[in-house]
Sequence to fold (125 residues):
Amino acid sequence: MIQGIGTDIVEVSRIEKIIEKWGPRFIERVYTPGEIEYCSKKAFPAMHFAARFAVKESILKSLGIGLGKGLRLRDIEVLNNQEGSPFLQSNDAVKEVFRRRGISGVHISITHTKKYAQAVVILEK
Fold:
């Protein structure tokens, strides 16, 4: 049964400008070490950072909460499996929110171009 759906679209140039302005200060506040490693290895890192940002926002939207309402962006970690598909790596804060809400599954879809990154998240009970 679907518990929640969230979607977000991010302009890659917006994330790129924020990274240029704030550098590691922004990156380390929003992204996990695993996300930073993955995105930094790409030819156009801002596109991949933007995609992960979109997932983080989509997760919050699917839960019906905003920033500061129990989860931080850095609590939400998006990694890729061996086939390249994105998945949520939950820390204790995310696990607790999901446990309280009876969430048993998370489905993530990401797409991006040079200009935009978009994510859709479906939470399952």
About this structure: The chain has one domain: 2-124.
